[in-house]
């Protein structure tokens, strides 16, 4: 992965919890429009059982994060993936997504699903690069004028 940042899994009892969540909430506000942002509910989302967060910290600031959950044994989902603008195109997004896929794999789920706005070309390309397929287009998913692709990655039955 890019120099200057290791992937860390945020632990519920971590003394850094509020610091990290604060950093992520700031990025959420910056990167995502209101209706797509988890800024107001991030802490709550994260405290749910069956959810996890991986992040990369560079020089004391959160540079990138991915959030995922596994509500059932059938399917996990990637609920958020974002890289701060000045850290993009350095491999952080791909490294985080790969690690999140591995975390989900160890939960023995059969599939990972996610939603993404088709206009988010970098994200759609990244998901496709790591093997996600487009399932279908859901109209008016994020807002009346914003659609979503539902994408999925199936693990081979072993
Ligand atoms: C999508 C996002 C997470 C990618 O992070 P990143 O660290 O810049 O991506 P990486 O450097 O790891 O690139 C990995 C792959 O992503 C794709 N990609 C990344 N940026 C791209 C761009 N600007 N244009 C086209 N494809 C792009 C490519 O397939 C790339 O592989 P390649 O280098 O072999 O071409 C980042 O652009 C982002 O935070 N976007 C805004 C938030 C968002 O859309 N999140 C997803 C919806 S929840």
TrEMBL record:
Residue ranges of every copy of the N-acetyltransferase domain listed in the record: 8-156
GO molecular function, one term: acyltransferase activity, transferring groups other than amino-acyl groups
UniProt-listed Pfam families: Acetyltransf_1
Protein name: FkbH domain containing protein
